[in-house]
Amino acid sequence: NLTSYEVFYDEKRPFFLEGNSILDYGAGSDLLFYSRRIGAAPGYVPEYGLNENLSMPDQTTILNALKLTGKNRSGLSLGVINSMTAHENAVISFNGQERKEAVEPFTNFFIGRVKQDFNDGNTVLGGMVTSTIRNIKDEHLEFLPDNSLVGGLDFQHNWLNRKYFVDFKGFFSRVNGSEEAISDLQLNSRHYFQRADAPHLTFNENLTHLQGWGGEVRGGKRSGKFRLVGSLDWRSPGVELNDVGYLRQADYLNQELSMVYWINKPKGILHSYYFEIDQEHNRSYGGEWLGDEVMAHLRLQFKNLWKLDIV
After folding, report:
1. I need a labelling partner for 179 at 20 to 30 A (CA). Which of 94, 140, 188, 285 fits?
2. How far is CA 21 from CA 17, 18, 93, 212, in A?
3. 274: which strand partners?
4. Rounded mean pLDDT, 14-19
5. Which contacts (CB < 8 Å, 24+ apart) does range 132-136 have?
6. DSSP of 160-173, one letter per residue?
7. pLDDT at position 106, please?
8. Distance (Å, rounded) from C-alpha 174 to C-alpha 309?
9. Which one, of 129, 39, 40, lies nearest residue 84 by Cα?
10. CA-CA distance, 239 to 33, in Å (whole number)?
11. How much is the pTM?
12. Pairing of strands 76-85, 123-135
């Protein structure tokens, strides 16, 4: 990976996959709960000499995990996960002598999700809370945040046989830690508070917490011959989800609009056809222009199932 963005890996462990739809809370490319954070590789790699051997765990040991997910007859969905991961040590050996060095503190993860369906499932109101608490006792691990808290609300409403919809998600985050830990967050590639060309950002090496908010609102008409869907996605500079979630990038405002005219009824030599126009506009929270994009796409599908695409 030669980019500044963290690689996203799909979850494969059955324990975290079962009932995962209830715990889903995604906005844009980000997630409030990214289960691969639990049991991930230790965050610290010790320094060692040329003649020394280093042995350390590939993953953090999961000491225990409790999971409860379900939905009752009245449309109430509930999901809870609480998991503890172990304090991990690396072993450095030389000439039969060994020394241990901590590479990951004892950590507790909590995820809570609740949703309520109304109006035969056409309206959904929900909320989510996540918490990460680290028991940091070693000075060299103080680059990790002590604790983080994220809370989110979401609302979705559909009408006219789900032809029209509006979908809103909003969340707030706060991360607490040492000056070193919060400085590292400000300087990393998700935030870049040190950028000289961003007057709305100020790096503060004395901060012991970082907070921000983000969200997404989408809506429009998503079925029929003519379809129109618009969205606005935003992240403040200080939002941070990566203790138990997934944040690709902070500090942006992204607006998108998609218009489609789709005919599925055969006519002449055509089996179906559609014409689509997509527009996107990006800015930072400080008003910096980050880019504009307009794309047009025409697809013709003939009765012999051949397709012609013009972009």
Report:
1. 285
2. 8, 8, 45, 26
3. 262, 299
4. 92
5. 132/107, 132/108, 132/243, 132/244, 133/107, 133/108, 134/105, 134/106, 134/107, 135/87, 135/105, 135/106, 135/107, 136/105
6. TTTTEEEEEEEEEE
7. 98
8. 47
9. 39
10. 15
11. 0.91
12. unpaired
Whether residue 99 contacts residue 80, with contact meaning beta carbons closer than 8 Å, is answered with no
The residue count of the chain comes to 311
Instruction: Give the number of other CB atoms < 10 A from CB of residue 216.
Output: 20
| Nearest CA-CA partner of 217 in 164, 263, 254 | 254
Note the pLDDT tens digit of each residue in 60-76.
Answer: 999 999 999 999 999 99
What strands lie across the sheet with 226-235, from one edge to the other? Answer: 62-71, 76-85, 106-118, 123-135, 147-159, 164-176, 209-221, 226-235, 252-263, 270-283, 289-302, 307-310
Q: Give which of 279, 221, 283 is closest to 254, Cα–Cα.
A: 283
Q: Rg of the chain over CA atoms, in angstroms?
A: 24
What's the pLDDT tens digit per position in 221-259?
999 999 999 999 999 999 999 999 999 999 999 999 999
Cβ atoms 179, 203 nearer than 8 A = no
Residue written as token pair 């890996």: 9
Q: What token pair was written down for 29?
A: 């490319």
268: region left, alpha or beta (phi > 0 left; psi from -120 to 50 alpha): left
Count of Cβ atoms closer than 10 Å to residue 74 Cβ:
8
Tokens of residue 246, six digits: 């997934």
Distances (CA, A) of 244 to 20, 53, 81, 189, 260: 15, 32, 12, 18, 37
For residue 216, give both structure tokens: 């997404």
- Contact criterion met (CB below 8 Å) for 262 and 225: yes
